[in-house]
């Protein structure tokens, strides 16, 4: 299938900020022509009537957990299939894998295995500190040389301010972003959910907003003084948005949110139990509204997922002992449609831009993430109207820990094309 012709679709031109009724011709791994009425009798034709055709979706916050095959099957393959099902052509894997991405050999191994599987583009985020323990800086330069495109201790925060300051000073010379999980553990302690009415009623230890806000404030100042690129991930509080708004013209910063922090509040814990247990915790309505306003006015420029698949027993226990995290990789786009398009916060172009071009710019790859003649042929085709029901039993991911089971959503990806190859067709995954 050397040539693919996508006809009668509506192209999402995120770099130009418009929708356009055009055909799109792919040859090998490149987009070779965008125009009306393209004819090519040798090409495989996709009839995209009624569909949106945009650049491949990018998710810069995904967890893989195990790098080796486990008793439950090949975790890498399962999560890469989940990415394809979700319309993602590119994902960034956080370093809290087993083993962690703190050694060049491990980073290279992840890259090798993912290329061997041959589905989506996988970029590793290297660990800021050895073992993600916050004690000793990783070899930033060697990890970048091995393939790391960003650095994070996600799941943990770098509590040593001096260490983070030195790491950002050092990393600035390698021009790589730091993706920061912001949680002051001396404040959050053994907290389980947001410190609010639900925690009080259920007798659970709470995680106050200040655990997140205080560390964001610290790291905004460090970013300002070092000049390093800092990306604040899964922002969840109203005051965090205000802090980011104040600093956005003063430092090289960016931020993302997750769909669950836009669609759920702390009350979801009463309905969904451990499936609604996540860090940062689900907050209150005022936080949700502030996050949406931050997206609307450009304070928050990236939409990610924080996909955290957990198998079986890690969620099948009492609330205080269950793992944090939500599995959402294959439903992230329709969740964002519900949270932002249906609510009038963003139009289709704005949504797509925050899930393609913007994350690639944060990662320092401005030549990717949009449709243009000569660009790489990473393309996602979405049905914007048909509604399907979320069924966790149909997930490709090994994680079934999802509070959205049974939700009716629209905006599902129906084709995923990676490097000029159709790897999902009509919501069914194909072999590469």
Features:
single chain, 432 residues, alpha/beta, nine-stranded mixed sheet, four-stranded parallel sheet, 14 helices, 28% helix, globular
Task: Describe the structure concisely for a colleague.
This protein is α/β, with parallel strands linked by helices and 432 residues long.
Structure description:
With 432 residues, the protein is α/β, with parallel strands linked by helices. Strand 8, helix 3 (140-146) and strand 9 (150-152) form a beta-alpha-beta unit. Strands 1, 2, 3, 4, 5, 16, 17, 18 and 19 form a nine-stranded mixed β-sheet that branches. The chain has helices at 75-85, 104-117, 140-146, 161-171, 185-188, 197-202, 210-226, 238-247, 260-263, 268-272, 285-296, 332-341, 348-353, 357-362, and strands at residues 3-13, 18-27, 30-35, 44-47, 52-55, 57-62, 88-93, 121-127, 150-152, 178-180, 193-194, 206-207, 230-232, 253-257, 302-303, 379-389, 408-418, 421-425, 428-429. Helix 8 (238-247) runs parallel beside helix 11. It contains 14 helices and 19 strands. The mean pLDDT is 96.
Helix proportion range = 25-40%
Low-confidence stretches: none
Evaluate the radius of gyration: 21 Å
Mean pLDDT, rounded to whole units? Answer: 96
Tell me the total number of β-strands: 19
Query: Ends: how far apart?
Result: 11 Å
The total count of helices amounts to 14
Largest sheet: 9 strands, mixed
Oligomer: single chain
Strand content: 15-25%
Secondary-structure content class: alpha/beta
Shape: globular
């Amino acid at each position: 299938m050397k040539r693919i012709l996508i006809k009668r679709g509506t192209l999402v031109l995120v770099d130009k900020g418009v929708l356009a009724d055009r055909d799109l011709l792919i040859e090998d791994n490149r987009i070779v022509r965008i125009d009306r009425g393209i004819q090519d009798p040798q090409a495989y034709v996709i009839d995209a009537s009624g569909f949106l055709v945009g650049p491949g979706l990018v998710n810069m916050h995904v967890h893989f957990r195990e790098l080796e095959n486990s008793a439950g099957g090949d975790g890498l393959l399962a999560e890469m299939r989940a990415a394809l099902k979700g319309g993602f052509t590119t994902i960034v894997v956080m370093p809290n894998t087993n083993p962690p991405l703190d050694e060049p050999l491990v980073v290279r191994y992840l890259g090798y295995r993912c290329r061997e599987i041959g589905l989506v583009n996988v970029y590793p985020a290297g660990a800021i500190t050895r073992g993600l323990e916050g004690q000793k800086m990783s070899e930033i330069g060697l990890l970048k040389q091995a393939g790391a495109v960003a650095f994070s201790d996600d799941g943990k925060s770098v509590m040593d301010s001096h260490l983070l300051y030195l790491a950002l000073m050092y990393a600035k010379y390698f021009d790589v972003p730091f993706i920061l999980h912001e949680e002051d553990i001396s404040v959050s302690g053994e907290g389980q959910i947001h410190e609010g009415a639900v925690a009080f009623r259920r007798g659970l230890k709470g995680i106050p907003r200040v655990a997140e806000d205080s560390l964001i404030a610290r790291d905004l100042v460090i970013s300002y003084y070092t000049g390093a690129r800092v990306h604040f991930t899964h922002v969840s509080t109203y005051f965090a948005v205000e802090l980011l708004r104040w600093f956005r013209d003063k430092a090289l910063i960016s931020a993302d949110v997750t769909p669950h922090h836009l669609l759920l509040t702390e009350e979801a814990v009463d309905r969904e139990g451990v499936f609604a247990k996540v860090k940062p915790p689900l907050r209150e309505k005022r936080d949700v509204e502030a996050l949406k306003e931050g997206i609307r006015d450009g304070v928050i420029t990236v939409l990610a997922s924080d996909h955290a698949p957990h198998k079986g027993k890690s969620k099948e226990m009492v609330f205080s002992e269950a793992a944090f995290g939500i599995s959402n990789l294959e439903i992230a786009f329709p969740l964002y449609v519900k949270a932002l398009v249906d609510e009038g916060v963003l139009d289709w172009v704005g949504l797509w831009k925050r899930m393609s071009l913007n994350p690639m710019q944060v990662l320092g790859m401005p030549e990717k993430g949009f449709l243009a003649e000569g660009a790489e042929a990473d393309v996602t085709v979405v049905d914007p109207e048909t509604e399907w029901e979320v069924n966790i039993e149909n997930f490709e991911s090994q994680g079934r820990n999802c509070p959205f089971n049974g939700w009716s959503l629209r905006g599902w990806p129906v084709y995923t094309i990676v490097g000029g190859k159709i790897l999902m067709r009509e919501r069914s995954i194909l072999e590469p």
